[in-house]
Design goal:
CATH architecture of one domain: 3-Layer(aba) Sandwich
Helix content: 25-40%
Largest sheet: 5 strands, mixed
Structural class: alpha/beta
CATH class of one domain: Alpha Beta
Number of helices: 17
CATH superfamily of one domain: Periplasmic binding protein-like II
CATH topology of one domain: D-Maltodextrin-Binding Protein, domain 2
Protein backbone atom coordinates (compact mmCIF):
# COMPACT_ATOMS: atom_id res chain seq x y z
CA UNK A 1 0.00 0.00 0.00
CA UNK A 2 2.88 2.34 0.68
CA UNK A 3 3.99 2.18 -2.95
CA UNK A 4 0.70 3.13 -4.60
CA UNK A 5 -1.19 6.37 -4.80
CA UNK A 6 -4.95 6.69 -5.26
CA UNK A 7 -4.57 7.25 -8.97
CA UNK A 8 -3.51 9.53 -11.77
CA UNK A 9 -1.00 11.64 -9.91
CA UNK A 10 1.98 12.18 -12.18
CA UNK A 11 5.43 10.96 -12.88
CA UNK A 12 6.86 8.51 -15.35
CA UNK A 13 5.49 5.70 -17.44
CA UNK A 14 6.08 2.96 -19.99
CA UNK A 15 3.84 2.67 -23.02
CA UNK A 16 1.86 4.43 -25.72
CA UNK A 17 0.44 7.54 -24.14
CA UNK A 18 1.64 7.86 -20.59
CA UNK A 19 4.63 9.78 -19.26
CA UNK A 20 8.32 9.72 -19.68
CA UNK A 21 10.70 10.26 -16.76
CA UNK A 22 11.29 6.60 -17.37
CA UNK A 23 9.38 5.88 -20.59
CA UNK A 24 5.79 6.57 -21.69
CA UNK A 25 2.85 4.16 -21.49
CA UNK A 26 -0.43 3.83 -23.33
CA UNK A 27 -2.83 5.60 -21.03
CA UNK A 28 -6.55 5.13 -21.42
CA UNK A 29 -7.24 6.79 -18.14
CA UNK A 30 -4.11 7.93 -16.36
CA UNK A 31 -3.69 5.64 -13.36
CA UNK A 32 -0.43 5.75 -11.48
CA UNK A 33 2.13 3.93 -9.41
CA UNK A 34 5.16 5.42 -7.75
CA UNK A 35 8.29 6.48 -9.54
CA UNK A 36 10.28 4.54 -6.99
CA UNK A 37 8.98 1.20 -8.18
CA UNK A 38 8.46 2.19 -11.83
CA UNK A 39 5.81 -0.51 -12.02
CA UNK A 40 3.29 -0.22 -14.82
CA UNK A 41 -0.45 -0.07 -14.36
CA UNK A 42 -3.06 -0.69 -17.02
CA UNK A 43 -3.07 2.98 -17.90
CA UNK A 44 0.62 3.21 -17.55
CA UNK A 45 1.50 6.28 -15.57
CA UNK A 46 3.89 6.23 -12.67
CA UNK A 47 3.10 8.48 -9.77
CA UNK A 48 5.39 10.83 -7.95
CA UNK A 49 4.09 10.86 -4.43
CA UNK A 50 5.53 12.75 -1.52
CA UNK A 51 7.91 10.72 0.61
CA UNK A 52 6.85 12.70 3.64
CA UNK A 53 3.25 11.77 2.89
CA UNK A 54 3.95 8.08 2.57
CA UNK A 55 3.25 6.82 6.05
CA UNK A 56 2.95 3.48 7.72
CA UNK A 57 -0.44 2.07 8.51
CA UNK A 58 0.28 2.51 12.23
CA UNK A 59 0.46 6.31 11.90
CA UNK A 60 -2.84 6.63 10.09
CA UNK A 61 -6.23 7.32 11.57
CA UNK A 62 -7.86 4.24 13.03
CA UNK A 63 -11.34 3.14 12.05
CA UNK A 64 -14.00 3.06 14.75
CA UNK A 65 -14.90 -0.54 15.64
CA UNK A 66 -18.48 -1.85 15.41
CA UNK A 67 -20.62 -1.38 18.46
CA UNK A 68 -20.61 -4.27 20.89
CA UNK A 69 -23.39 -6.71 20.05
CA UNK A 70 -24.09 -5.07 16.70
CA UNK A 71 -25.92 -7.26 14.19
CA UNK A 72 -25.24 -4.91 11.27
CA UNK A 73 -24.41 -6.39 7.91
CA UNK A 74 -20.61 -6.21 7.52
CA UNK A 75 -19.08 -5.45 4.13
CA UNK A 76 -15.41 -4.95 3.35
CA UNK A 77 -13.90 -1.99 1.52
CA UNK A 78 -10.43 -2.30 -0.03
CA UNK A 79 -8.74 1.08 -0.49
CA UNK A 80 -5.11 2.01 -1.20
CA UNK A 81 -3.52 5.37 -0.57
CA UNK A 82 -0.12 6.92 0.04
CA UNK A 83 -1.01 10.37 1.30
CA UNK A 84 -1.99 10.18 4.95
CA UNK A 85 -4.60 12.93 4.52
CA UNK A 86 -6.34 10.89 1.84
CA UNK A 87 -6.33 7.67 3.85
CA UNK A 88 -7.61 9.55 6.90
CA UNK A 89 -10.35 11.06 4.74
CA UNK A 90 -11.63 7.58 3.90
CA UNK A 91 -11.58 6.65 7.58
CA UNK A 92 -13.60 9.76 8.45
CA UNK A 93 -16.15 9.12 5.71
CA UNK A 94 -16.57 5.46 6.59
CA UNK A 95 -16.85 6.21 10.32
CA UNK A 96 -19.59 8.73 9.60
CA UNK A 97 -21.33 6.33 7.22
CA UNK A 98 -21.31 3.57 9.85
CA UNK A 99 -22.69 6.00 12.42
CA UNK A 100 -25.57 7.10 10.18
CA UNK A 101 -26.29 3.63 8.77
CA UNK A 102 -26.63 1.42 11.86
CA UNK A 103 -27.69 -1.61 9.80
CA UNK A 104 -24.43 -1.62 7.82
CA UNK A 105 -20.86 -1.78 9.04
CA UNK A 106 -18.14 -1.07 6.48
CA UNK A 107 -14.76 -2.53 7.36
CA UNK A 108 -12.01 -0.50 5.71
CA UNK A 109 -8.85 -2.36 4.75
CA UNK A 110 -5.76 -1.48 2.77
CA UNK A 111 -4.56 -3.94 0.16
CA UNK A 112 -1.88 -3.10 -2.35
CA UNK A 113 -3.23 -2.42 -5.81
CA UNK A 114 -1.64 -5.50 -7.32
CA UNK A 115 -3.01 -7.67 -4.52
CA UNK A 116 -6.45 -6.19 -5.13
CA UNK A 117 -6.26 -7.00 -8.84
CA UNK A 118 -5.34 -10.57 -8.05
CA UNK A 119 -8.22 -10.86 -5.59
CA UNK A 120 -10.73 -9.33 -8.00
CA UNK A 121 -9.66 -11.62 -10.83
CA UNK A 122 -10.01 -14.60 -8.49
CA UNK A 123 -13.50 -13.43 -7.38
CA UNK A 124 -12.17 -13.14 -3.84
CA UNK A 125 -11.92 -9.37 -3.40
CA UNK A 126 -13.40 -7.02 -0.79
CA UNK A 127 -17.04 -6.10 -1.38
CA UNK A 128 -15.97 -2.61 -2.46
CA UNK A 129 -12.82 -1.90 -4.49
CA UNK A 130 -11.31 0.67 -6.82
CA UNK A 131 -11.75 -0.57 -10.36
CA UNK A 132 -8.84 1.62 -11.40
CA UNK A 133 -8.69 1.21 -15.18
CA UNK A 134 -9.27 -2.52 -15.23
CA UNK A 135 -12.58 -2.41 -17.09
CA UNK A 136 -11.77 -5.78 -18.59
CA UNK A 137 -12.55 -7.32 -15.20
CA UNK A 138 -16.20 -6.35 -15.64
CA UNK A 139 -17.05 -8.42 -18.71
CA UNK A 140 -15.14 -11.30 -17.12
CA UNK A 141 -17.69 -11.31 -14.32
CA UNK A 142 -15.39 -10.13 -11.56
CA UNK A 143 -17.18 -6.78 -11.10
CA UNK A 144 -20.88 -6.21 -10.47
CA UNK A 145 -23.07 -4.14 -12.80
CA UNK A 146 -24.04 -0.86 -11.08
CA UNK A 147 -26.58 0.38 -13.64
CA UNK A 148 -29.69 -0.86 -11.81
CA UNK A 149 -28.64 0.87 -8.59
CA UNK A 150 -27.82 4.10 -10.42
CA UNK A 151 -31.17 4.01 -12.23
CA UNK A 152 -33.04 3.61 -8.92
CA UNK A 153 -31.18 6.50 -7.28
CA UNK A 154 -32.23 9.47 -9.41
CA UNK A 155 -30.43 12.05 -7.24
CA UNK A 156 -27.12 10.37 -7.98
CA UNK A 157 -27.14 11.60 -11.56
CA UNK A 158 -29.10 14.80 -10.94
CA UNK A 159 -26.51 16.14 -8.49
CA UNK A 160 -23.48 15.29 -10.62
CA UNK A 161 -21.14 18.06 -11.72
CA UNK A 162 -20.25 15.94 -14.77
CA UNK A 163 -23.11 13.48 -15.43
CA UNK A 164 -21.16 11.85 -18.27
CA UNK A 165 -18.77 10.41 -15.70
CA UNK A 166 -21.47 7.94 -14.67
CA UNK A 167 -20.98 6.12 -17.95
CA UNK A 168 -17.20 6.08 -17.91
CA UNK A 169 -17.15 2.38 -17.06
CA UNK A 170 -20.13 1.39 -19.20
CA UNK A 171 -19.79 -1.58 -21.52
CA UNK A 172 -22.64 -3.19 -23.45
CA UNK A 173 -25.28 -1.58 -21.25
CA UNK A 174 -23.57 -2.46 -17.96
CA UNK A 175 -21.75 -0.03 -15.69
CA UNK A 176 -18.86 -1.55 -13.75
CA UNK A 177 -17.78 1.48 -11.73
CA UNK A 178 -19.55 4.41 -10.12
CA UNK A 179 -17.93 7.83 -9.54
CA UNK A 180 -17.55 9.22 -6.03
CA UNK A 181 -15.63 12.33 -7.13
CA UNK A 182 -14.02 13.57 -10.34
CA UNK A 183 -10.76 15.19 -11.35
CA UNK A 184 -9.17 16.94 -14.29
CA UNK A 185 -5.66 16.42 -15.49
CA UNK A 186 -3.12 18.77 -17.06
CA UNK A 187 -3.03 21.70 -14.62
CA UNK A 188 0.42 23.25 -14.30
CA UNK A 189 2.08 23.41 -10.88
CA UNK A 190 4.93 25.94 -10.71
CA UNK A 191 7.48 27.30 -8.26
CA UNK A 192 6.68 30.99 -8.48
CA UNK A 193 9.93 32.05 -6.83
CA UNK A 194 12.05 30.19 -9.39
CA UNK A 195 10.00 31.52 -12.30
CA UNK A 196 10.23 35.13 -11.15
CA UNK A 197 13.98 34.82 -10.51
CA UNK A 198 14.42 33.66 -14.10
CA UNK A 199 12.22 36.46 -15.43
CA UNK A 200 9.35 34.16 -16.39
CA UNK A 201 5.85 35.45 -15.72
CA UNK A 202 3.85 32.77 -13.81
CA UNK A 203 0.93 31.37 -15.84
CA UNK A 204 -1.60 31.90 -13.07
CA UNK A 205 -4.53 32.60 -15.36
CA UNK A 206 -3.19 31.94 -18.85
CA UNK A 207 -2.79 28.75 -20.87
CA UNK A 208 0.66 28.45 -22.41
CA UNK A 209 1.15 27.03 -25.88
CA UNK A 210 3.69 24.24 -26.41
CA UNK A 211 6.23 26.80 -27.61
CA UNK A 212 5.60 29.17 -24.70
CA UNK A 213 6.11 26.31 -22.25
CA UNK A 214 9.32 25.26 -24.01
CA UNK A 215 10.62 28.84 -24.03
CA UNK A 216 9.87 29.21 -20.32
CA UNK A 217 11.55 25.89 -19.52
CA UNK A 218 14.68 26.79 -21.51
CA UNK A 219 14.89 30.19 -19.82
CA UNK A 220 14.50 28.56 -16.43
CA UNK A 221 17.12 25.90 -17.12
CA UNK A 222 19.60 28.51 -18.30
CA UNK A 223 19.05 30.49 -15.10
CA UNK A 224 19.92 27.43 -13.00
CA UNK A 225 23.37 27.18 -14.61
CA UNK A 226 25.40 24.26 -15.89
CA UNK A 227 25.42 21.02 -13.93
CA UNK A 228 22.48 22.18 -11.83
CA UNK A 229 20.43 19.66 -9.88
CA UNK A 230 17.35 21.82 -10.44
CA UNK A 231 15.19 21.05 -13.48
CA UNK A 232 12.80 23.38 -15.23
CA UNK A 233 10.24 20.75 -16.20
CA UNK A 234 9.15 17.31 -15.18
CA UNK A 235 8.86 14.84 -18.02
CA UNK A 236 5.31 15.25 -19.27
CA UNK A 237 3.34 13.05 -16.92
CA UNK A 238 0.79 11.88 -19.47
CA UNK A 239 1.11 12.14 -23.23
CA UNK A 240 -2.68 12.25 -23.46
CA UNK A 241 -2.47 15.81 -22.15
CA UNK A 242 -0.39 16.97 -25.08
CA UNK A 243 -2.28 14.96 -27.72
CA UNK A 244 -5.65 16.39 -26.72
CA UNK A 245 -4.29 19.88 -26.23
CA UNK A 246 -2.94 19.73 -29.77
CA UNK A 247 -6.30 18.74 -31.22
CA UNK A 248 -5.55 15.03 -31.56
CA UNK A 249 -7.15 11.89 -30.23
CA UNK A 250 -5.65 8.78 -28.71
CA UNK A 251 -8.54 6.38 -29.36
CA UNK A 252 -11.52 6.19 -31.66
CA UNK A 253 -14.84 6.66 -29.87
CA UNK A 254 -15.48 2.91 -29.80
CA UNK A 255 -11.97 2.05 -28.64
CA UNK A 256 -11.15 -0.17 -31.61
CA UNK A 257 -8.54 2.10 -33.20
CA UNK A 258 -5.42 3.73 -31.87
CA UNK A 259 -5.19 7.22 -33.39
CA UNK A 260 -1.72 8.32 -32.38
CA UNK A 261 -0.59 8.38 -36.00
CA UNK A 262 -2.25 11.74 -36.73
CA UNK A 263 -0.09 14.83 -37.26
CA UNK A 264 -1.56 16.37 -34.10
CA UNK A 265 -0.64 13.34 -32.02
CA UNK A 266 2.81 12.94 -33.59
CA UNK A 267 3.65 16.60 -32.98
CA UNK A 268 2.50 16.28 -29.37
CA UNK A 269 4.63 13.18 -28.79
CA UNK A 270 7.65 14.83 -30.37
CA UNK A 271 7.25 17.94 -28.24
CA UNK A 272 6.91 15.82 -25.11
CA UNK A 273 10.03 13.77 -25.82
CA UNK A 274 12.01 16.85 -26.83
CA UNK A 275 11.67 18.25 -23.31
CA UNK A 276 13.70 15.31 -22.07
CA UNK A 277 15.96 14.30 -24.95
CA UNK A 278 16.58 17.47 -26.97
CA UNK A 279 16.18 20.41 -24.61
CA UNK A 280 17.31 18.50 -21.52
CA UNK A 281 15.08 20.55 -19.23
CA UNK A 282 13.57 17.46 -17.58
CA UNK A 283 15.23 14.83 -15.36
CA UNK A 284 15.79 11.26 -16.47
CA UNK A 285 14.43 8.50 -14.25
CA UNK A 286 17.76 8.02 -12.47
CA UNK A 287 17.76 11.70 -11.51
CA UNK A 288 14.14 11.53 -10.35
CA UNK A 289 15.05 8.60 -8.12
CA UNK A 290 18.14 10.37 -6.81
CA UNK A 291 16.58 13.79 -6.12
CA UNK A 292 13.08 12.63 -5.28
CA UNK A 293 13.81 9.33 -3.60
CA UNK A 294 10.68 7.28 -3.04
CA UNK A 295 8.68 10.49 -3.33
CA UNK A 296 9.51 11.07 -6.99
CA UNK A 297 8.60 14.31 -8.74
CA UNK A 298 6.46 15.84 -6.01
CA UNK A 299 9.34 15.49 -3.56
CA UNK A 300 11.62 17.10 -6.16
CA UNK A 301 9.16 19.99 -6.35
CA UNK A 302 8.80 20.24 -2.57
CA UNK A 303 12.55 20.42 -2.10
CA UNK A 304 13.14 23.02 -4.81
CA UNK A 305 14.69 20.69 -7.40
CA UNK A 306 11.83 21.03 -9.88
CA UNK A 307 10.23 24.22 -11.20
CA UNK A 308 7.18 22.96 -13.11
CA UNK A 309 5.08 19.84 -13.57
CA UNK A 310 1.63 18.92 -14.83
CA UNK A 311 -0.81 16.94 -12.69
CA UNK A 312 -4.29 16.51 -11.34
CA UNK A 313 -5.36 17.70 -7.84
CA UNK A 314 -3.50 15.14 -5.69
CA UNK A 315 -0.27 17.06 -5.09
CA UNK A 316 -2.34 19.82 -3.49
CA UNK A 317 -2.50 17.76 -0.31
CA UNK A 318 1.23 17.33 0.45
CA UNK A 319 2.08 20.76 -0.98
CA UNK A 320 -0.06 22.48 1.65
CA UNK A 321 2.85 22.24 4.06
CA UNK A 322 5.37 23.91 1.72
CA UNK A 323 6.39 27.32 3.08
CA UNK A 324 9.97 27.62 1.82
CA UNK A 325 8.80 29.12 -1.48
CA UNK A 326 5.66 30.43 -3.11
CA UNK A 327 3.99 28.05 -5.53
CA UNK A 328 0.88 28.16 -7.67
CA UNK A 329 -1.34 26.28 -10.10
CA UNK A 330 -2.39 27.44 -13.53
CA UNK A 331 -4.54 26.01 -16.34
CA UNK A 332 -3.11 23.38 -18.65
CA UNK A 333 -1.38 23.66 -22.00
CA UNK A 334 -2.53 24.06 -25.59
CA UNK A 335 -1.26 23.41 -29.07
CA UNK A 336 -0.48 26.36 -31.29
CA UNK A 337 -3.75 26.11 -33.24
CA UNK A 338 -5.94 24.49 -30.63
CA UNK A 339 -7.48 25.54 -27.31
CA UNK A 340 -6.73 23.85 -24.03
CA UNK A 341 -8.88 20.73 -24.03
CA UNK A 342 -9.51 19.15 -20.68
CA UNK A 343 -9.36 15.51 -19.70
CA UNK A 344 -11.91 14.52 -17.06
CA UNK A 345 -12.10 11.20 -15.28
CA UNK A 346 -14.13 9.81 -12.37
CA UNK A 347 -12.76 8.64 -9.05
CA UNK A 348 -14.70 5.47 -8.58
CA UNK A 349 -15.30 2.52 -6.39
CA UNK A 350 -17.25 -0.52 -7.42
CA UNK A 351 -18.53 -3.71 -5.92
CA UNK A 352 -17.72 -7.39 -6.17
CA UNK A 353 -20.28 -8.28 -3.49
CA UNK A 354 -21.95 -11.66 -3.85
CA UNK A 355 -25.50 -11.23 -2.49
CA UNK A 356 -28.13 -8.69 -3.45
CA UNK A 357 -28.18 -7.35 0.12
CA UNK A 358 -24.41 -6.86 0.10
CA UNK A 359 -24.54 -5.22 -3.32
CA UNK A 360 -27.16 -2.74 -2.18
CA UNK A 361 -25.13 -1.95 0.93
CA UNK A 362 -22.03 -1.46 -1.22
CA UNK A 363 -23.84 0.95 -3.51
CA UNK A 364 -25.14 2.80 -0.45
CA UNK A 365 -21.49 3.51 0.37
CA UNK A 366 -20.77 4.68 -3.19
CA UNK A 367 -23.85 6.90 -3.07
CA UNK A 368 -22.77 8.31 0.30
CA UNK A 369 -19.36 9.30 -1.06
CA UNK A 370 -20.95 11.00 -4.05
CA UNK A 371 -23.99 12.73 -2.60
CA UNK A 372 -23.69 13.27 1.17
CA UNK A 373 -22.70 16.66 2.56
CA UNK A 374 -20.19 15.05 4.91
CA UNK A 375 -18.29 13.16 2.22
CA UNK A 376 -18.31 16.04 -0.26
CA UNK A 377 -16.96 18.35 2.44
CA UNK A 378 -14.18 15.86 3.19
CA UNK A 379 -13.30 15.56 -0.49
CA UNK A 380 -13.28 19.35 -0.84
CA UNK A 381 -11.18 20.12 2.22
CA UNK A 382 -8.60 17.37 1.64
CA UNK A 383 -8.28 18.14 -2.09
CA UNK A 384 -8.87 14.47 -2.76
CA UNK A 385 -10.49 15.52 -6.02
CA UNK A 386 -13.38 17.64 -7.18
CA UNK A 387 -16.56 16.91 -5.20
CA UNK A 388 -19.05 14.86 -7.20
CA UNK A 389 -21.90 17.24 -6.39
CA UNK A 390 -21.94 20.47 -8.36
CA UNK A 391 -23.08 22.53 -5.36
CA UNK A 392 -20.06 21.39 -3.35
CA UNK A 393 -17.69 21.77 -6.30
CA UNK A 394 -18.81 25.39 -6.59
CA UNK A 395 -17.40 26.03 -3.09
CA UNK A 396 -13.84 25.22 -4.10
CA UNK A 397 -11.26 27.94 -3.59
CA UNK A 398 -7.88 28.44 -5.23
CA UNK A 399 -5.95 26.34 -6.09
CA UNK A 400 -8.57 23.58 -6.36
CA UNK A 401 -10.84 26.06 -8.12
CA UNK A 402 -8.49 25.94 -11.12
CA UNK A 403 -9.42 22.28 -11.57
CA UNK A 404 -13.13 22.94 -11.03
CA UNK A 405 -13.07 25.70 -13.66
CA UNK A 406 -11.52 23.29 -16.14
CA UNK A 407 -14.07 20.60 -15.32
CA UNK A 408 -16.90 22.98 -16.21
CA UNK A 409 -15.19 24.36 -19.31
CA UNK A 410 -17.26 24.05 -22.46
CA UNK A 411 -14.39 22.76 -24.56
CA UNK A 412 -13.32 19.83 -22.40
CA UNK A 413 -12.60 16.51 -24.00
CA UNK A 414 -13.98 13.61 -22.04
CA UNK A 415 -11.20 11.07 -21.71
CA UNK A 416 -11.89 7.79 -23.46
CA UNK A 417 -12.82 4.94 -21.22
CA UNK A 418 -10.21 2.39 -20.16
CA UNK A 419 -10.12 -0.27 -22.82
CA UNK A 420 -9.32 -3.95 -22.20
CA UNK A 421 -5.89 -5.45 -22.78
CA UNK A 422 -4.05 -2.14 -22.63
CA UNK A 423 -1.74 -3.35 -19.88
CA UNK A 424 -0.78 -6.50 -21.75
CA UNK A 425 -0.14 -4.57 -24.96
CA UNK A 426 2.08 -2.10 -23.13
CA UNK A 427 4.11 -4.80 -21.48
CA UNK A 428 4.67 -6.89 -24.61
CA UNK A 429 4.88 -4.25 -27.31
CA UNK A 430 4.78 -0.54 -26.46
CA UNK A 431 7.21 -0.44 -23.55
CA UNK A 432 10.18 -1.94 -25.44
CA UNK A 433 9.59 0.49 -28.31
CA UNK A 434 9.61 3.56 -26.08
CA UNK A 435 12.66 2.25 -24.25
CA UNK A 436 14.46 2.41 -27.59
CA UNK A 437 13.38 6.04 -27.96
CA UNK A 438 14.64 6.86 -24.47
CA UNK A 439 18.01 5.34 -25.35
CA UNK A 440 18.25 7.36 -28.57
CA UNK A 441 18.00 4.27 -30.77
CA UNK A 442 14.67 5.06 -32.42
CA UNK A 443 13.08 8.36 -33.57
CA UNK A 444 9.66 9.23 -32.16
CA UNK A 445 7.83 8.94 -35.48
CA UNK A 446 9.35 5.54 -36.19
CA UNK A 447 8.31 4.42 -32.72
CA UNK A 448 4.73 5.52 -33.35
CA UNK A 449 4.67 3.64 -36.66
CA UNK A 450 5.88 0.46 -34.98
CA UNK A 451 3.40 0.77 -32.11
CA UNK A 452 0.51 1.24 -34.53
CA UNK A 453 1.55 -1.82 -36.53
CA UNK A 454 1.99 -3.88 -33.37
CA UNK A 455 -1.40 -2.78 -32.08
CA UNK A 456 -3.13 -3.87 -35.27
CA UNK A 457 -1.58 -7.33 -34.93
CA UNK A 458 -2.32 -7.43 -31.21
CA UNK A 459 -6.02 -6.59 -31.60
CA UNK A 460 -6.50 -9.33 -34.18
CA UNK A 461 -5.76 -11.73 -31.35
CA UNK A 462 -8.43 -10.11 -29.17
CA UNK A 463 -11.22 -9.44 -31.65
CA UNK A 464 -13.61 -11.41 -29.49
CA UNK A 465 -13.02 -9.31 -26.38
CA UNK A 466 -12.18 -5.90 -27.83
CA UNK A 467 -14.59 -3.00 -28.07
Amino acid sequence: MENLDRRRLLGTALGVAGTMASIPLLSACGATVTAATAATSSSGTVSATSSSAATTTATRAAQAPPKAGSKALTITYGQFEVFKTQWDMHVAIINEFNKTHPNIYVKLQGPTYQKMLTEVAAHDAPDLVNTYSELTLGPKGALIDQSAFIARDKKYEQLALVPQALHYYEYKGKIYGAPTAIATQQCLYYNEDLLKKAGVKPPSDTVWTFQEYTDAALKLQKSFGANSNIFASAPLNNFDYAVYANGGRVWSSDGTQLLIGSKEARDAYQWSWDLLLKHKVAPAQAEVSSLGGTGGLVTMFETGHLAMFFSDPYPLSPLKKVTAFKWGVGPGIKGTKHPCQVIIYPLDITTTAKTEQERQAAFDVIDYYATSDFANNQILTTHYGIPFRKDWAAKAKYPLKVFVDLATHNDFVYLERPYPNVSEFNTKYATPVWQSVALGKLPVNAAIDKILADYKTFMQQYNKTGY
